[in-house]
Design brief:
The protein has three helices and no strands.
Length: 82
């Protein structure tokens, strides 16, 4: 399996991730009703925004590319088998 570590998080998506992570941390700090373990979920969007690469996003893109390639190959075989 070849993993491509190119940027797959755009600047606007990174900003949304920073805002989401900040909101989660802020909710934990400001409200005693919010469980503290919620702040752990803030680590993922903030970290992926910092490095501008998301492994889950890369995996989904890889699966979509594989499935679209197999569909294209099947369509090509069907049209050439006439």
């Amino acid at each position: 399996m070849n993993i491509d570590f190119s940027i797959n998080v755009s600047r606007s998506e990174a900003m949304r991730r920073y805002l989401l992570g900040s909101a989660l941390i802020g909710a934990v700090l400001l409200s005693p009703a919010v469980p503290s373990w919620i702040a752990l979920f803030a680590c993922y969007p903030i970290f992926t925004a910092m490095i501008q690469w998301d492994p889950a996003n890369a995996m989904l893109q890889s699966l979509v590319n594989k499935s679209s390639k197999s569909v294209q190959e099947a369509m090509f075989r069907k049209t050439t088998a006439v």
